[in-house]
Amino acid sequence: MVVAVAVFAATVLHAAILCSAGMTSSFVRSPQKSVDMPLDSDVFKAPPGYNAPQQVHITQGDHVGEAVIVSWVTVEEPGSSIVQYWAENTSHKHKAEGKFNKYKFYNYTSGYIHHCTIRKLQHDTKYYYEVGVGSSARTFWFTTPPKVGPDAPYTFGVIGDLGQTYDSNITLTHYEKNPNKGQTVLYVGDLSYADNYPFHDNVRWDTWARFVERSVAYQPWIWTAGNHEIDFVPEIGETKPFKPYTNRYRVPYKASNSTAPFWYSVKRASAYIIVLSSYSAYGKYTPQYQWLEDELPKVNRSETPWLIVLMHSPWYNSNTYHYMEGETMRVMYEPWFVKYKVDVVFAGHVHAYERSERVSNIAYNIINGLCSPVSDQSAPVYITIGDGGNIEGLANNLTEPQPKYSAYREASFGHATFSIKNRTHSYYSWHRNQDGYAVEADSLWFFNRFWHQIDDSTTAA
C-alpha cells in the first residue's frame, strides 16, 4: 500500500511538472540605475613598479587543453615578452617567448600588448607563471584541465555582458565566492562597453582588463565577441571592426581550422565548446557557415559527450529587448543543433536571465504553417545570461503571456555554473547577485543528449 501511494504521488508530481507553465520569477529587484565605478576605484588600479605588467589574462591556447595563451600590457616600454613557468612542487623553470603589438584608435594609443603561448603542458597540473622583469615582475598561477575524456568532471562559470559598474563588481565577486567553484569561464560577449563612452574611449578597455584580472589571470576565460566589441565608427575614421578586441584578446582559432578569431572550438575535459559570432557573416557559403558545417560532424561524443555552444545574440528570447535579433541565425543553424544534439546554448545580449525548455522550430517550410516552437528532446536548452551588470542596466520588459518554451525568466544580474559530473549528468545553477553566495535562484540537472537522452524538462514545453 505504501509503495502504491508513493508511485501515485510520484505520478501526480510528474504530471504537475509537465502540465505547469513556465515561470516568471516573482523576485523584484530595486530599479536603481547601474552606475560605473569611478576611474580611481581600487579595482582599476595599476600594479606598482616601473613598467609592471598589467591586464594579465589567460585563455586556452590549443584545441585540447595542453596550451595557454598568456596576455598582458606594459605601459612605459615594451619590456620582455617572455613568460617563465613551472609546475607546482618543481624548481625547474621553463621559458616561452611571445610577441607584442600596439594599436591606435582615434586619439588613443594603446600600451604594449603582449601575447605568449605556453605549450606542451601536463593535464590536471597547477602551474605558476611569471611576467615582467626585475622588481616589477608578477607571478600568477593556473590549473590545466584533465585529459580530454568522456567522464572527466569539470565546472564552468558562465558570465556575459559584464561591463564595469558596481553591479559588475558584485557579479564577479559572487562568481569568485560561489562554493561550486568554476574552473574556467564561458564568456558570452560584451566585455568593457568602451563604446558607450565618447569616441569609444579605449581607456575603458584598460580599466576593464585591470578589473577582471583578479579572475582571468588565474583561470581561462573562453571569449565570445559581442556587439560591443565591434567598434566600427567611420565618423571618426575607425572603419576596421573589432580592432580593440582582436588586438587585446587572442583565441586559438587556427587550431580548429577556423579562418577568423570570432568562431572556433576547443575541447576541455569532457566538453566540446563551439564559439560562434552573431556579428560576422553566417549565411550560406560564408566562412563561418562552411566552418560550422565541417565542424559539427567532427565532434566525437564518445570522447567529449557534452556539446556546448556559445554565442552573443540569443535565438529564443521572450524579452522585448533585442527581440528576434537572432532569428536569421537560428533559421540557418538550428537544424544542425538538433541533428547533432547540442546539449546547451549560452547567449548574452539581453540584460536579463532566461532558460528555455528543449524546443525546436525547424519544421516550418514557408507554406505548412508549422511555425511555432515544439518540444524536442534532441534540441538544446537555450540560456540567456546577459546579466553581468553593465552600464545599460536591466532589460525588464518581458513579453506577456510567457511563451510555453520559456521555463524560467527574471530581470536580475547574476552568473551561472555548469558542473559536468560524468558523461550522463551535469548540474546547472544560476545565482542572482542579491542572494547569498550559495543560493541557487534557478537550477537544473542536465541529462546528456547523446548518452542519456531522457526528458529533463521542468515545465510543459
Automatic annotation (TrEMBL):
Its cofactor is Zn(2+); Cu(2+); Fe cation; Mn(2+). Its EC number is 3.1.3.2. It catalyses: a phosphate monoester + H2O = an alcohol + phosphate. Keywords: Glycoprotein, Hydrolase, Iron, Metal-binding, Signal, Zinc. It holds the Pfam family Metallophos. It is an enzyme of class 3 (hydrolase). Residues 52-147 form the Fibronectin type-III domain. GO terms for molecular function: acid phosphatase activity; metal ion binding. Residues 1-15 form the signal peptide. Transmembrane segments: none annotated. It comes from the Eukaryota. InterPro entries: Calcineurin-like_PHP, FN3_dom, Metallo-depent_PP-like, MPP_PAP, PAPs-like, PAPs_C, PAPs_N, Purple_acid_Pase-like_N. Homodimer; disulfide-linked. Belongs to the metallophosphoesterase superfamily. Purple acid phosphatase family. PANTHER family: ACID PHOSPHATASE RELATED, PURPLE ACID PHOSPHATASE 10. This is Purple acid phosphatase.
